[in-house]
Amino acid sequence: MAGGRRVIVGIGLDLQRIDGIEAAEALRTPGPVFSDAECRHAASRRSPASALACGFAAKEAFFKSLPEPTAYFWTDMEVLCDDGREARFRFHGDLAALLAAKRWEVRLSLAQGGGYASAFVAISTRS
């Protein structure tokens, strides 16, 4: 790979029960966890609770993957799940600046089944 090899600097995994997210009605409106765009996307899906559970798991997995303590907000990142494309994050503000300064690349994988949503996040950098 041009520019050096990739080195993983952090990984995170999270598992969420979909019915647990479904019961949390406060998560369906924009606020401290989800942006307006994320809530609109979830509402447009066949199973809004599944979409929110995936987003929640993704954000939890991201925070677990950070190799150093941080104090960022859940809304400093958005989970994008466009049809036909892999899930990914869009970062904002100080969190976006940190990732750029450290030259970290964030990969996200989502899955759901059996009443659960799971997310795996890997943060890498060039060595």
Question: Which keywords apply here?
Answer:
5 strands; Ribosomal Protein L22, Chain A; three-stranded antiparallel sheet
Q: Figure out the total of helices.
A: 4
Strand order of the largest sheet: 1-5-4
Q: What's the CATH topology label?
A: Ribosomal Protein L22, Chain A
Query: How many strand segments?
Result: 5
Shape: globular
CATH architecture: Alpha-Beta Complex
| Radius of gyration (Å) | 15 Å
pLDDT below 50 for ≥5 consecutive residues: which ranges? Answer: none
Superfamily (CATH H level) name? 4'-phosphopantetheinyl transferase domain
Q: Quote the distance from N terminus to C terminus.
A: 11 Å
Mean pLDDT over all positions: 91
Helix-strand sequence: EHHHEEHEE
Query: Structural class of the helices, strands and pairings?
Result: alpha+beta
What proportion of the residues is helical, as a percent range?
Answer: 25-40%
* CATH uppermost class: Alpha Beta
Walkthrough of the structure:
The structure is a single chain. By secondary structure, the protein is an alpha+beta fold. It has one domain: Alpha-Beta Complex (Ribosomal Protein L22, Chain A), CATH 3.90.470. The protein contains 4 helices and 5 strands. The chain has helices at residues 18-23, 36-44, 48-65, 93-102; strands spanning 6-17, 77-80, 88-91, 105-113, 116-126. 28% of the residues are buried.
List the helices and strands and how they pair.
Layout: E1 6-17, H1 18-23, H2 36-44, H3 48-65, E2 77-80, E3 88-91, H4 93-102, E4 105-113, E5 116-126
Helix pairs in contact: 2-3
